[in-house]
Amino acid sequence: MTKLTEWIVLAGLAFSLWITLLVDFFPIRISYEAKEVLWPMPVYALIAFGCYSLATIGYRVATFNDCLEASKSLKQEIKDAREDLTRKGYKFD
Amino acid sequence: MADKMDKYSILLPTYNERENLPLIVWLIVNAFSESGNDYEIIIIDDGSPDGTQEAAKQLEDIYGTEIIRLRPRPSKLGLGTAYIHGMQHARGNFIIIMDADLSHHPKFIPEFIRKQKEGNFDVVSGTRYIGSGGVFGWDLRRKLISRGANYLTQILLRPGASDLTGSFRLYKKDVLQCLVDACVSKGFIFQMEMIVRARQFGYTIGEVPITFVDRVYGESKLGGSEVVSFAKGLLYLFATT
């Protein structure tokens, strides 16, 4: 099963559960008040997911390591490499 | 304590890397002389006009033909075929792939090797996104696009690896062979396809945090066309894996 079909199956399941509860397909009684809450659920879910995503990405951007040390030590190593290679007979131009 | 049986072949595909090639080779030799593992460096130059091959020959004279192995190709033929070409000449049972432009540091190779042995992983992937990993030389915009694209990919593909577009990795040779045969994408999407297919085929993936030092100052490699090809690649993998 590809990721695409996984997503379609899951979305289909969630959607059918939601619609069957709304149209009283199951023999369980759902009060009018509960339906008031239930029908905009997909929108709530999307908003919640959007907020979670933005928060996650924001946090990860803010905590992305800058690696200043790695850049500094690389510069030093490049110097060392040039010296050592020149000693070994390498001709830089 | 190095395993006498294991040999590591480092594939260095190059194009106009005359400046960087001696430096990266020196750093690789350094890393391996400290770790004591058996290794070879296979330089696959795609007919660079800047004299990369002359530089490679000088290095061959210094370090010997057992360590430095030149396997050039006449013209620029792409990354996937460079790996195939390099693998045909590789004598190691492990293949290490990295960029020759010094954005990947060979000091991490011993950690890749340790990680691989720890869980007998089929693939060990360097990651900029977890632990001590990171990037030097990226502005906020670049970080935002990178993190956003990575998040979207994680949600859609759940690939079991945190860095999909990175290209600093260690593979068991037969695993790399199988993955290269199965992957059709080009450029950095190729790296993404390799790791996603690795998961699809049930290969185990270990991860090592790496630092990525972007030395191409003032030139953004991430333009509109990269975003478009990323989106296409993502959708292709979403529908086929």
UniProtKB/TrEMBL annotation, chain A:
- Please name the GO terms that the record assigns under molecular function: glycosyltransferase activity
InterPro entries in the record: DPM3 (IPR013174)
Q: Where in the cell is it found?
A: Endoplasmic reticulum membrane
- Keywords of the record: Endoplasmic reticulum, Glycosyltransferase, Membrane, Transferase, Transmembrane, Transmembrane helix
Q: In which pathway does it act?
A: Protein modification; protein glycosylation
Q: In this entry, which stretches build a coiled coil? A: none
Its quaternary organisation is:
Component of the dolichol-phosphate mannose (DPM) synthase complex.
Q: Briefly, what is this protein's role?
A: Stabilizer subunit of the dolichol-phosphate mannose (DPM) synthase complex; tethers catalytic subunit to the ER.
Entries under PANTHER family matching the protein: DOLICHOL-PHOSPHATE MANNOSYLTRANSFERASE SUBUNIT 3
Designated name of the protein: Dolichol-phosphate mannosyltransferase subunit 3
From which source organism is this entry? Answer: Acropora cervicornis
TrEMBL record, chain B:
Q: What is its main location?
A: endoplasmic reticulum
- Which family, according to the similarity comment? Belongs to the glycosyltransferase 2 family.
Reaction catalysis annotation = a di-trans,poly-cis-dolichyl phosphate + GDP-alpha-D-mannose = a di-trans,poly-cis-dolichyl beta-D-mannosyl phosphate + GDP
The places in or outside the cell where this protein is found are: Endoplasmic reticulum
Record function comment: Transfers mannose from GDP-mannose to dolichol monophosphate to form dolichol phosphate mannose (Dol-P-Man) which is the mannosyl donor in pathways leading to N-glycosylation, glycosyl phosphatidylinositol membrane anchoring, and O-mannosylation of proteins.
Q: Which Pfam families does this UniProt record tie to the protein?
A: Glycos_transf_2
Q: Does the keyword Glycosyltransferase apply?
A: yes
The subunit field of the Swiss-Prot or TrEMBL record says: Component of the dolichol-phosphate mannose (DPM) synthase complex.
Task: Give the UniProt entry's GO cellular component terms.
Answer: endoplasmic reticulum membrane
Pathway per its UniProt entry is: Protein modification; protein glycosylation
GO-annotated biological processes: dolichol-linked oligosaccharide biosynthetic process; GPI anchor biosynthetic process; protein O-linked glycosylation via mannose
Positions of the Glycosyltransferase 2-like domain: 9-179
Protein name per its UniProtKB record = Dolichol-phosphate mannosyltransferase subunit 1
- Assigned keywords, A-Z: Endoplasmic reticulum, Glycosyltransferase, Magnesium, Manganese, Metal-binding, Transferase
Read off the InterPro entries from this record.
DPM1-like, Glyco_trans_2-like, Nucleotide-diphossugar_trans
GO MF annotations, alphabetized: dolichyl-phosphate beta-D-mannosyltransferase activity; metal ion binding
The prosthetic group or cofactor this protein requires is:
Mg(2+); Ca(2+); Mn(2+)
The organism is Acropora cervicornis (Staghorn coral)
Q: Where is the signal peptide?
A: none
**UniProt-listed Enzyme Commission number(s):** 2.4.1.83
